[in-house]
Amino acid sequence: MAQSNRKHLAVVHEAADSPDNPHDAGANEPVIDMNAPVGRILGQAREIAGYSLYDVAATLRIRHGLLQAIEDGRHQDLPGPVYAIGFVRTYAEFLGFDGDQVVARFKRESAAVEKKPDLVFPVPVPEGSRVPGGAILMIAVLIGGLAYAGWYYLSSANRDMAAEIAALPARFAALLDGNAQPESNPGPVVQPAAPNSGPNLQAAAPTAEPGPGERMTAGPIVPGPTAPAGTPALPSP
User: Fold this and answer.
1) Which Pfam families does the annotation name (predicted)?
2) Which of 52, 189, 190, 235 has the most CB atoms at less than 10 Å from its CB?
């Protein structure tokens, strides 16, 4: 089937390095654009031959997605260079092209793609996921209000605690003040009362009884203790 379909392929050579024409072009046969990339050339040849990608994938045992990536020129979706070159060579030879020339052209195209800078542009945020500006403002105001309420509560608690402390007396405050003068009119000084002493009775020295013919001489008279006021006098003997 492949040989019969290849008889209908007609390739126009527009460049010296383009793949060879496997068949002579007929008058009414379709023509492949050889100025197109390798993948498009292989896709046009496949369509002219009457194959589908699933037919080629089943015959060559190459995944359908890889063949589609080759035809679409999506080099970034292909595996490593060694595997990609092997797939391109097998696909080209299956369609009747010169595998070496097709691979050489595929390498030049891949090198040109790799040299292009990979520009990453910012993706706009969908309208549905964008937070409205009013909501952000309300959240900011709410956070500010909570912060102010916490500060006011703490400062009020400190003021209440200071009000509960009693003020120092004036004399203690004067002691703390180094420049304060001492009080000029101190209060009366109260002397401690002397304890009441008991009766101080001085015992008279005993005198010897006078002998016969001796006169009694009176000694010095020592006044006895005066009884305090309000104390009854002792009865005389």
Assistant:
1) HTH_25
2) 52
Segment 160-188, tens digit of pLDDT: 666 666 666 677 667 766 654 555 555 55
The whole domain housing 80 covers 38-115
Residues 159 and 106 in one domain: no
How far apart CA 203 and CA 222 sit, in angstroms, is: 10
Domain boundary among 164, 185, 201: 164
CATH code of the domain containing 81: 1.10.260.40
Chain centroid to CA 40: 53
Local confidence band at 89 (pLDDT 50, 70, 90 cut-offs): very high
Task: Name the domain count of the chain.
Answer: 2
Q: Rounded distance, CA 23 to CA 49, Å?
A: 12
Whether residue 214 lies inside any domain: the answer is no
Mean pLDDT, rounded, of the chain: 70
Cα–Cα dist 5/129, whole Å: 54
Q: What is the dihedral of CA 66, 68, 70, 71, to 10 degrees?
A: 170
pLDDT higher than threshold 50 for residue 70:
yes
On whether residue 151 sits in a domain, the answer given is yes
Residue 20 is assigned to a structural domain of this protein = no
Q: How many CB atoms lie within 10 A of CB 187?
A: 6
Quick: pLDDT tens for 106-144.
999 888 766 555 556 676 656 655 556 778 888 999 899
Range of weakest confidence among 58-62, 64-68, 227-231: 227-231
